[in-house]
Amino acid sequence: MTAFKTAEFYEILGNAGGRLEREGSFLLEALAEAPSTHVADLACGLGLHALFLAEHGGEVHAFDLSPEMIDHARNRRPHPNLTYTVGDMCTLSGGPYGLVLCLGNSLCLLDSAHKVKVFFQGVHGHLLPGGLCITQTLNYETPVMKRPRIRVEGAEVQGGEIAAIKRFLPEGDHTHLSIDYLGVALGDMLQASESFTLYHWNERQLSEIAENTGLQVKGCYGGYDRKPFREDTPDMVLITQKP
Fold this sequence. Notes:
27% of the residues lie in helices and 39% in strands. It is an alpha/beta fold. It folds into two domains: 2-140 and 201-241, Vaccinia Virus protein VP39 (Rossmann fold); 143-198, CAC2371-like domains (S-adenosyl-L-methionine-dependent methyltransferases), CATH 2.20.130.10.
């Protein structure tokens, strides 16, 4: 059985389902509203959003804490207006930016209110006046997120198939997530695994922390279609702005 880089599993399983078709219009509206086209994409992962905005006129600096993900994104999604850098979402550099993104529930990896405050302080310090910050997290207030659950995702690949088995175990203010990646391709078995602890930041907490760093809450939505945020909406898309 061959060890397989998790970035390759992300590429196959995470780059499916029309993600940019659902999210693209929202992001382009934010880019048009921002005071400049300089964009920071924090916890950029595969580089999907970074490349999308670079292709639509953004000058994008994409950061991720994982060197593996940055190498993967740099190789798969290069663009003249796009720079990839290994970096922590809490230690933003460069700028000043007109738009800062932190999508994909990445903010829930921060395990304390202090770290969330440091995140928003960094954003505030590197935004232009009028600049926007967009964070997307899951809404852990919904009943389904409070129950243990298993989700299996699969996809066909050349010469075989792969799957991700995700186990979610809520416990108080956080959820333990473990993922086993399994696959078979061209006669070889593939495997990888990883685990995370995801913290249940809610709209009130994130808004208060952001406002305490000098940002203003511009809107909070239940999805990229701008539907109103409610306790039963699965996503929380928060927009803050530097005065």
